[in-house]
C-alpha cells in the first residue's frame, strides 16, 4: 500500500520515500530512453528551481541537482508523475510511450512506489539529421 505524507510516500511501515527521490529516479529513467533529447522544465518547475537555488545561496549549501521537467504529485490514493521532454531521432509517440513504461517500471521496482499515472508532455522535437544519429548501443560501447 502506498500512502502520501506531505511530499513523501510511505511504501511500507516505517519506510518513507521523499518526492525528490521519486523525481530523481523518474528523470534518470526518462533520460535512459533512446530518443529523449532532454528534459524540459515547465514554468512551475523553473520557478521552483530558482527558489531552491536562492535558498541554497542564502544558506550556503550547494545547489541541488535539478530534475527539470519532472513533476511528482503524491496523494493518499495516487502517485502521479509528469515528464516534460524534447524528443529526436524517433517518432515522438513511440518515445513517449516508452518513457511512460520505463518510468513506471523503474519507480515501482526501485522505490516500491505504486505509480498510478505517468503523463508525458512533448515540449519540443529536435530535428536530427539521420547521418548525425548515433545508436545508443554505440554510445554505450564507447563509454569508459
Automatic annotation (TrEMBL):
<dbReference type="Pfam" id="PF03780">
    <property type="entry name" value="Asp23"/>
</dbReference>
<protein>
    <recommendedName>
        <fullName>Asp23/Gls24 family envelope stress response protein</fullName>
    </recommendedName>
</protein>
<dbReference type="InterPro" id="IPR005531">
    <property type="entry name" value="Asp23"/>
</dbReference>
<comment type="similarity">
    <text>Belongs to the asp23 family.</text>
</comment>
Amino acid at each position: 500500500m502506498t500512502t502520501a505524507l506531505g511530499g513523501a510516500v510511505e511504501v511500507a511501515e516505517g519506510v518513507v520515500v521523499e518526492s525528490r527521490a521519486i523525481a530523481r529516479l523518474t528523470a534518470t529513467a526518462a533520460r535512459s530512453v533512446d530518443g529523449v533529447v532532454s528534459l524540459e522544465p515547465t514554468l512551475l518547475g523553473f520557478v521552483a528551481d530558482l527558489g531552491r537555488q536562492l535558498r541554497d545561496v542564502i544558506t550556503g549549501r550547494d545547489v541541488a541537482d535539478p530534475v527539470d521537467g519532472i513533476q511528482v504529485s503524491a496523494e493518499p490514493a495516487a502517485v502521479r508523475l509528469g515528464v516534460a521532454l524534447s524528443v529526436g531521432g524517433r517518432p515522438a509517440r513511440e518515445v513517449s510511450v516508452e518513457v511512460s513504461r520505463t518510468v513506471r517500471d523503474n519507480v515501482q521496482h526501485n522505490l516500491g512506489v505504486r505509480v498510478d499515472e505517468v503523463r508525458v508532455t512533448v515540449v519540443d522535437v529536435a530535428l536530427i539529421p539521420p547521418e548525425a544519429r548515433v545508436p545508443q548501443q554505440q554510445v554505450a560501447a564507447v563509454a569508459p
